[in-house]
Amino acid sequence: MSLMNIHKGWTASGVAAARTVHRLYDSPVIFDDDAAIHLLSPAERYLCQSKLVFRLLLQRSIREFRPYIFHSFSCQRYAEEQLLRAIGQHKSQYVILGAGFDSFALRRPDLESRVRIFEVDHPQSQQFKQKRIARSPYPVPGNLVFVPVDFEQETLLDGLERSRFDFSQPAFCSWMGTVMYLTQEAVLATLEAMASLAPGSELVFNYASPHGALSNADREMVKDLETTLRHGSASMNAKFLPTELAEKASGLGFDIRAQLDSGDLDERYLAGWEGLRTIPFGHLLHLQVRG
Length: 291
Ligand SMILES: C[S@@+](CC[C@H](N)C(=O)[O-])C[C@H]1O[C@@H](n2cnc3c(N)ncnc32)[C@H](O)[C@@H]1O
Prior knowledge:
Layout: H1 10-25, H2 42-49, H3 51-64, H4 66-88, E1 93-97, H5 104-107, E2 116-121, H6 123-134, E3 144-148, H7 156-161, E4 172-175, H8 184-195, E5 202-208, H9 216-231, H10 242-252, E6 254-260, H11 262-269, E7 282-289
Parallel strand pairs: 1-2, 1-4, 2-3, 4-5
Antiparallel strand pairs: 5-7, 6-7
Helix pairs in contact: 1-2, 2-3, 4-11
The structure holds S-adenosylmethionine.
């Protein structure tokens, strides 16, 4: 199976490959995922691990997509920093929307008794991941609950109601690398559903704003990214203006805990990567359900 599997899960295995390559060849590492490599197929692992093959086949395109890849790493790092803070404050439910090959549950068996993890994802991607976990050295963690949901067909709440989610308790939720693949309607329906979770529940997610005025290099990168996605039967969809999205969230009943644009993410996480910037149209929003 290649890195570009033609179904919903390929974007997820692509992220796992990017994390693997980052850990193997980059310094400083800004998001350290030592489990991602075990979720790759043998062919994908070989492509990443063999220095020569990596240099010949992958290095160039990975370098081109670095602003996008490092946006994803920075946002994921922010989400997990905030998650650990929330767990320290006794939040014991972690909902990962569009979980893909997220490996937090595999990486942190030490938290098994403290947090129940609900991975919400498209049924196709979830089956793909379950097969990969079955072939990995990891057992399925006892605190991991799989919740299959197609956000274009039903809401997050439909999925959580079928699971052992405790609606009386606040949750920490992350929704990374997914909003851009959905329609605007599906994103807003999911936000509305999240707003009905227990007060104090938090949601961290990243999204793209309309590209607006881009430099030539950025425009080329976006074009390449869109072509790559199209080849894999995916496309960049929902885009939001930060002020409008924040207003919408506030109207739905959220307080805004943080709003980070690409400059904020670069300042926080890209120290040591001089000259590199994350995608200028990438944003992160951290919301909390009003009490
Ligand atoms: C790039 S992956 C992101 C994975 C992970 N959150 C990350 O940031 O590494 C995109 C995820 O969006 C999910 N996705 C795309 N369309 C979806 C839909 N209609 N319903 C549910 N999930 C969807 C895919 O299944 C995939 O897991």
